[in-house]
């Protein structure tokens, strides 16, 4: 078990379930004796989600809230939360808790055993699914994963499971390079992790399908495919590599300044923030 854990919950109009979700997470934190912070990232909710989270914050100091300036997407929310999280291990989970929060221990175990990134998988062990998705959702999900593996070279059975954990130093690097802000961000962060040679461990988790899922496989699936094309384009054009090199140069500059040396600055550092351009 890591010394300190940050649990990130991206939320958009989650009034119907955010209260139960926070109750269940806090009960788990107490029962497992985790030293944890719970960070809800609100993505422009208009349905009373904020008021419910505010109520939890008033009575439990472990609950905190971040608010996006507008509705920016799940990927933006996850990045916002993970980059501001304070835990030694940082993780995100969907607001519906389709993967039981108790199974975060499986992710923590993988990280304790040497992984930099631990990702939950619905497909490694189908027997762990407590409520199966409708056939059409399974079909589209499997097709998307197959396309992801072929187009992006990702060897994972399930890239889209909203149950992932990271060593904080790895998360700080990966999510500073992330550019996809909506549903297609999961393959991008795994693509970046592999490019950086981080150790990624896929872990089978229990999964129960929530009929209130907000994903439309026709509408959002098309957007995910578009996002994959953007990721591939960024890769072919060398944008990830340039951003990684810029981050390394900035790190050398900071180190040199700390030691009183005058650092040499590469030409591509000028004007960059370390992020990949679109």
TrEMBL record:
It comes from Terriglobus roseus (strain DSM 18391 / NRRL B-41598 / KBS 63). Its EC number is 2.4.1.117. This is dolichyl-phosphate beta-glucosyltransferase. It holds the Pfam family Glycos_transf_2. Signal peptide: none annotated. Pathway: Protein modification; protein glycosylation. Belongs to the glycosyltransferase 2 family. It is found in: Endoplasmic reticulum membrane. It catalyses: a di-trans,poly-cis-dolichyl phosphate + UDP-alpha-D-glucose = a di-trans,poly-cis-dolichyl beta-D-glucosyl phosphate + UDP. One of its GO terms (biological process) is protein N-linked glycosylation. One of its GO terms (molecular function) is dolichyl-phosphate beta-glucosyltransferase activity. It comes from the Bacteria. Gene3D superfamilies: Spore Coat Polysaccharide Biosynthesis Protein SpsA, Chain A. It is an enzyme of class 2 (transferase). It is a single-pass membrane protein. InterPro entries: DPG_synthase (IPR035518), Glyco_trans_2-like (IPR001173), Nucleotide-diphossugar_trans (IPR029044). Residues 6-171 form the Glycosyltransferase 2-like domain. Keywords: Endoplasmic reticulum, Glycosyltransferase, Membrane, Signal-anchor, Transferase, Transmembrane, Transmembrane helix.
């Amino acid at each position: 078990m890591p010394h300190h854990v940050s649990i990130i919950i991206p939320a958009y109009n989650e009034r119907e379930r955010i209260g139960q979700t926070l109750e269940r997470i806090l009960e788990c934190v107490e029962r497992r004796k985790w030293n944890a912070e719970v960070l809800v990232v609100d993505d422009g909710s208009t349905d009373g989600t904020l008021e419910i989270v505010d109520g939890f914050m008033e009575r439990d100091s472990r609950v905190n809230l971040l608010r996006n300036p507008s509705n920016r997407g799940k990927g933006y929310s996850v990045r916002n939360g993970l980059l501001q999280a304070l835990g030694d291990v940082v993780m995100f989970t969907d607001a519906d808790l389709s993967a039981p929060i108790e199974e975060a221990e499986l992710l923590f175990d993988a990280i304790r055993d040497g992984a930099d990134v631990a990702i939950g998988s619905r497909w490694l062990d189908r027997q762990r699914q407590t409520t199966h998705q409708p056939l059409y959702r399974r079909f589209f999900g499997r097709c998307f994963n197959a396309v992801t593996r072929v187009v992006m070279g990702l060897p994972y059975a399930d890239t889209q499971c909203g149950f992932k954990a990271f060593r904080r130093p790895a998360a700080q690097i990966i999510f500073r390079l992330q550019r996809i802000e909506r549903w297609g961000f999961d393959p991008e962060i795994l693509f970046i992790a592999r490019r950086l040679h981080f150790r990624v461990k896929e872990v089978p988790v229990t999964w129960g399908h929530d009929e209130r899922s907000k994903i439309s496989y026709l509408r959002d699936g098309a957007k995910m495919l578009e996002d994959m094309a953007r990721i591939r384009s960024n890769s072919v054009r060398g944008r990830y590599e340039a951003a990684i090199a810029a981050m390394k140069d900035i790190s050398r500059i900071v180190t040199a300044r700390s030691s009183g040396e005058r650092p040499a600055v590469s030409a591509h550092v000028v004007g960059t923030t370390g992020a990949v351009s679109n």
